[in-house]
């Protein structure tokens, strides 16, 4: 075999090896979401790639047969064609035996280097650049090869399946996408500049709805503006002026005996039209949606949807009212800083190393602001005040402090056992 023929065979083997390397990396790197999108747009090849990903055993068996066969042939052809020329070159400086050894080493290094660059590194980097687009082009020829080498494929696949079963390992790839996977993708998109940081935060807030309890965003009992059923019109007018809200619970005797609620819009319409504000003179009393305080925000949204309401009374296990929540409260949690006003901020950054935080701030918001990954006993509280109570094992007093995660939490103001302000300092 002449040198030219040997070099042509080596080039052909490199092309074959590059083909199999490209087929391997593109199938492994292809994202199912992108392939599904391509399939829905009418690309039948994407559907075939999806089916291969579900059962990739035969596919990778052909890839490995091809790669190993080409590697062996490449070594044989390369060493046999290049060694004689190197041997003659080195015979002028060393013995025949030494020149043959050096010639073999040189041939081996050159063949390995050429295969490594052109048959492995280059095709794999090329495949990683756009795996889905290349995978749909590779799947057709690969399926033909799978059919052609079916006996070999069956033998090696069965052998591999038996090994997997002996080791107790799954035979099918788990392609379930979790919320953590989606959040990781959005964080990567935000770092790459594809997704705005605020947009990424909104997505993260949506996934938090399932872990945050309704008590973390409700208007607490002490801050509820409510009416008695027999309150005169002057009291109703004064209350809505002093404490403007979208809805007001209407009670019988005290706040724990809720009869329903009245919509603020309806009250304003009656005032503007000159109609009296009295429940016995046409002011509508709506039936209140009552939910337990251990529901998540996702569950509250479902309750709102089922009841076609946007206002709910929250009660504890003793049927005592602990707060109220509106649909706007939940959506404000999702939108975060996009809708919060400066005078409503619960977390105020004083400088690079200190923050002033309201005691009722949800602990998830505190963790996000301070970049704290974990909190102690996270199931025992929902707010910063609850965190301090759990850590101190008593009702905190002014100047009490707790250290955690590289921060010191110092109570600055307490009003009737309620923690108003907490100074957080980076230690």
Automatic annotation (TrEMBL):
Q: Where does it live in the cell?
A: Cell inner membrane
> Does the keyword field hold Membrane?
yes
* Residue ranges occupied by any CBS domain in the UniProt entry: 283-341
* Family matches, as CDD domains: CBS_pair_CorC_HlyC_assoc
- Cite the CNNM transmembrane domain residue spans from the record: 1-199
Please name the SUPFAM superfamilies in this protein's record: CBS-domain pair, FAD-binding/transporter-associated domain-like
Residue intervals passing through the bilayer: 6-29, 59-82, 102-122, 134-156
One matching Pfam family: CBS
Q: Which domain of life is it from?
A: Bacteria
Primary location class:
membrane
Q: Keywords on this record?
A: CBS domain, Cell inner membrane, Cell membrane, Membrane, Repeat, Transmembrane, Transmembrane helix, Transport
List the GO cellular component terms: plasma membrane
Q: Name one GO molecular function term.
A: flavin adenine dinucleotide binding
Identify its membrane topology class.
Multi-pass membrane protein
Please give the PANTHER family that the UniProt record associates with this protein: HEMOLYSIN-RELATED (PTHR22777), POLYAMINE EXPORT PROTEIN (PTHR22777:SF16)
Q: What does this protein do?
A: Involved in cadaverine and putrescine tolerance in stationary phase. May facilitate the efflux of both cadaverine and putrescine from the cytoplasm, reducing potentially toxic levels under certain stress conditions.
Q: Which family does it belong to?
A: Belongs to the UPF0053 family. PaeA subfamily.
What is the recorded name of this protein?
Answer: Polyamine export protein
To which species is this protein native? Variovorax paradoxus
Name of the gene this protein is made from: corC2
């Amino acid at each position: 075999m002449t040198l030219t023929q040997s070099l042509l065979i080596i080039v052909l083997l490199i092309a074959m090896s590059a083909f199999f390397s490209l087929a391997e990396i593109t199938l492994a790197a292809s994202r199912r979401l992108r392939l599904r999108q391509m399939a829905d747009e009418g690309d039948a090849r994407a559907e075939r790639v999806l089916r291969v990903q579900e059962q990739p055993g035969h596919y990778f068996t052909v890839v490995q047969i091809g790669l190993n066969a080409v590697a062996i042939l490449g070594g044989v052809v390369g060493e046999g064609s290049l060694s004689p020329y190197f041997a003659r070159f080195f015979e002028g400086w060393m013995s025949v035996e030494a020149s043959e050894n050096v010639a073999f080493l040189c041939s081996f290094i050159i063949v390995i280097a050429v295969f490594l660059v052109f048959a492995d590194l280059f095709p794999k980097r090329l495949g990683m650049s756009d795996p889905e687009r290349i995978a749909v082009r590779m799947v057709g020829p690969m399926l033909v090869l799978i059919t052609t080498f079916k006996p070999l494929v069956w033998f090696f696949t069965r052998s591999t399946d038996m090994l997997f079963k002996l080791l107790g390992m799954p035979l099918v790839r788990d392609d379930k996408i979790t919320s953590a996977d989606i959040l990781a993708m959005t964080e990567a998109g935000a770092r790459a500049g594809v997704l705005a940081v605020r947009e990424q935060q909104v997505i993260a807030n949506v996934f938090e709805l399932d872990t945050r309890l309704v008590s973390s965003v409700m208007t607490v009992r002490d801050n509820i503006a409510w009416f008695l059923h027999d309150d005169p019109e002057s009291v109703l007018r004064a209350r809505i002026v002093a404490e403007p809200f979208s809805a007001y619970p209407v009670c019988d005797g005290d706040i724990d005996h809720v009869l329903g609620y009245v919509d603020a819009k309806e009250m304003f319409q009656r005032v503007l039209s000159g109609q009296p504000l009295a429940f016995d003179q046409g002011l509508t009393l709506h039936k209140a949606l009552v939910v337990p305080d251990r529901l998540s925000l996702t569950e509250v949204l479902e309750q709102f949807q089922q009841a076609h309401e946007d206002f709910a009374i929250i009660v504890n296990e003793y049927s005592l009212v602990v707060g109220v929540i509106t649909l706007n409260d939940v959506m404000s949690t999702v939108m975060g800083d996009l809708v919060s006003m400066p005078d409503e901020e619960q977390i105020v950054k004083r400088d690079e190393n200190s923050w002033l935080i309201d005691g009722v701030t949800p602990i998830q918001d505190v963790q996000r602001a301070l970049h704290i990954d974990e909190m102690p006993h996270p199931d025992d509280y929902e707010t910063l005040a609850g965190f301090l109570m759990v850590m101190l094992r008593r009702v905190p007093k002014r100047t009490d402090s707790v250290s955690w995660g590289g921060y010191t939490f110092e109570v600055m103001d307490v009003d009737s056992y309620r923690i108003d302000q907490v100074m957080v300092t980076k230690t």
